[in-house]
């Protein structure tokens, strides 16, 4: 885990460079937009790098929905994150020759799966979903859902891991043989795997 915050810092640097290079030729709205993009990405890069305020983007822990005000306010962050995740998924589709839902998750133990956002979105048979993203709204239709907002590229804190265990443990104890539990992050390789271990 590590330098994911550099993506946001890079976008901030590009926006600042473009506003500095073109301030004489840009309209007021273009300049304000570039400066806003730089401010939002500088803030999110700092928070991500320091692991502070993982709830800053405004994702609800219980419903998984994004706060409308923060989504509008932080539109450069969300646009970039959603574009990044979508592009990664499309590249995977092209390279793999199509999408196989089984590739989006792996069964770690009986009924307990770790996966990516696509496993959550396209498989409607999850009994329980634990979401450890803070940048993507809930795409799962499972009845039992909980979100522990975590910055991409960072490991969950001990407190977040305890919260994850406290949420999943009762379902593991009472689940029947057909119960399915999914722990997911955006790509299914970092935050969700850390929680699973």
Automatic annotation (TrEMBL):
Tyrosine specific protein phosphatases domain boundaries: 162-197
UniProt keyword annotations, A-Z: Membrane, Transmembrane, Transmembrane helix
Pfam families (UniProt xref): DSPc
Parts of the chain that traverse the membrane: 28-47, 68-95
Domain of life: Eukaryota
Name this polypeptide is given: Tyrosine specific protein phosphatases domain-containing protein
Species, as recorded: Perkinsus olseni
Source lineage: Eukaryota, Sar, Alveolata, Perkinsozoa, Perkinsea
